[in-house]
Amino acid sequence: MNLKFRLIITQFLEFFIWGAWLISFGKYMGSMGMGNNIGTLFATAGVASFIMPAIAGIIADRWVNAERLLGLLHLLGAGCLFMASRASGAADFSYLYGCMFLNAMVFMPTIGLSYSVCYSIMAKHKMDTVRDFPPIRVWGTVGFIVAMWVVNLAGWGTSSNQLLLAGGAALFLGLYAFTLPPSPPTKAQKGRSLMTTLGLDALALLKEKRMAVFFLFAVLLGVCLQITNSYGSKFIGHFGDAGIYGDMYRATFAVRYDNIFLSLSQISEALFILAIPFFLRRFGIKIVMLISMLAWVLRFGLFGIGNPADGMVWLTLSMIIYGMAFDFFNISGSLFIEKETPAKFRASAQGLLMMVTNGLGAIIGNYGAQAAINYFAPDGSLAPNWPAAWFIFAGYALVIGVAFAIAFKPIKH
Predict the structure, then answer these.
(1) Is the fold of 1-192 the same as that of 194-413?
(2) Which is nearest to 38 in space by CA: 48, 23, 51?
(3) Lowest-pLDDT range, 54-68, 111-125, 241-255, 371-385?
(4) CATH architecture type of domain 194-413
(5) With b meaning 16 or more CB within 10 Å and e meaning fewer, what string describes 287-320?
(6) CB 333 within 8 A of CB 286
(7) CATH second-level architecture of 1-192?
(8) 247: Cβ–Cβ under 8 A, 6 or more apart, which residues?
(9) Per residue in 173-209, pLDDT tens?
(10) Mapped to the 3 state alphabet, what secondary structure does the chain carry?
(11) What is the pTM of this model?
């Protein structure tokens, strides 16, 4: 089989597993009477992102082939997802939480591991990673979107079948990974210090005010990153509740095909990556990051004024803006670190960025969003005030943007 195609399969399945449940899971939890605990469960990914990638990196760097570790973690994840599918009601929340926490602990490090496996195999076969990896990686986004569509078209948005689908894909990828060309630890990796592997030596960068400000705002903006992934499907789905709205919205496209509609965000994300080089050259790093923060204001604000009928245009614009909101900080922030940090700290600084955005920021964001939504739109409410929650999130992003504009002063090139 063609090597590039084999790597495409790896990336497709890696994100298919995630897409099969991530976006629809909030709605699924709501259908089981667990809607008030969505943030608690989704925060598990933040905890895992804060801890596990570094631990998996140490294991892959020093002792175990990366492709074997990738396979083992996915096999464990498959077991967790299969067990999670057995939860049947609100009384099973602790059981579901335990299964999904374990799943997060084994799944989150596989994202970085899947990249490492691709890079290692490509290097051994004299492939250009800068040129050849992006067309491979984009199939991961395709896999995420395909999984969302499958769940929606099969009617599994409120069914445990989404977990069985994810578990089946994880089982297949777990076995498939063992057939990939070997990616053994290298001598250079074996010689890295524990501080470097954990990404902690990059903390020395925080002595410089400019870098300290950047990482502070990385945490603050990381709060926004997963809120709509956690609550988007529950929000769109509530418009179909006959007890609240009657039949006003039940037949609309966004309610009937909520996952397909929400997948516009992932499509937007893939497209906006292509625009980043132009915006960076034209406006510079600070303006691009400010655009991201403004996009988050609009992402949340448009959710607040939109609905699946006469307000559909606002919801659609929110989907389109998501790509700019997510990519312009994540990708531009990564490029900023690549350009502005000493070579000896770059790998550690990239790891630290992931820890503070997808780890610490996501934990704070999920618990904060849960508190706001449980107050304004609690599970089972006959008069949920979703707009108030979305406007609070929009106001938060606006305050962060204004503060960033004042506090962050990059070196001009």
Answers:
(1) yes
(2) 23
(3) 54-68
(4) Up-down Bundle (1.20)
(5) ebbbbbbbbbbbbbbbbbebbbeebbebbeebbb
(6) no
(7) Up-down Bundle (1.20)
(8) none
(9) 999 999 999 888 765 554 556 566 555 666 777 788 8
(10) CCHHHHHHHHHHHHHHHHHCCCCCHHHHHHHCCCHHHHHHHHHHHHHHHHHHHHHHHHHHHHCCCHHHHHHHHHHHHHHHHHHHCCCCCHHHHHHHHHHHHHHHHHHHHHHHHHHHHHHHHHHHCCCCHHHHHHHHHHHHHHHHHHHHHHHHHCCCCCCCHHHHHHHHHHHHHHHHHCCCCCCCCCHHHHCCCHHHHHCHHHHHHHHCHHHHHHHHHHHHHHCCCCHHHHHHHHHHHHCCCHHHHCCCCCCCHHHHCHHHHHHHHHHHHHHHHCCHHHHHHHHCHHHHHHHHHHHHHHHHHHHHHCCCCCCHHHHHHHHHHHHHHHHHHHHHHHHHHHHHCCHHHHHHHHHHHHHHHHHHHHHHHHHHHHHHHHHHCCCCCCCCCHHHHHHHHHHHHHHHHHHHHHHCCCCCC
(11) 0.87
Q: Which residues contact 321 (CB under 8 A, 6 or more apart)?
A: 268, 295, 298, 299, 302
Of 333, 351, 354, whose CA–CA distance to 61 is shortest? 351
Could you report the per-residue pLDDT of 253-280, keeping only the tens digit for each? 999 999 999 999 999 988 888 788 788 8
Cβ within 8 Å of residue 307, ≥6 positions away: 239, 249, 314, 315
The answer to whether 33 and 89 have CB atoms below 8 angstroms apart is: yes
Average pLDDT over residues 159-173: 97
Q: Is the four-CA dihedral 160, 161, 163, 167 of positive or negative sign?
A: positive
Domains of the chain, by residue range, sit at 1-192, 194-413
> What residues contact residue 384 under an 8 Å CB cut-off, 6+ apart?
238, 244, 376, 377, 378
User: Is residue 355 a contact partner of residue 364, using CB atoms and an 8 Å limit?
Assistant: no
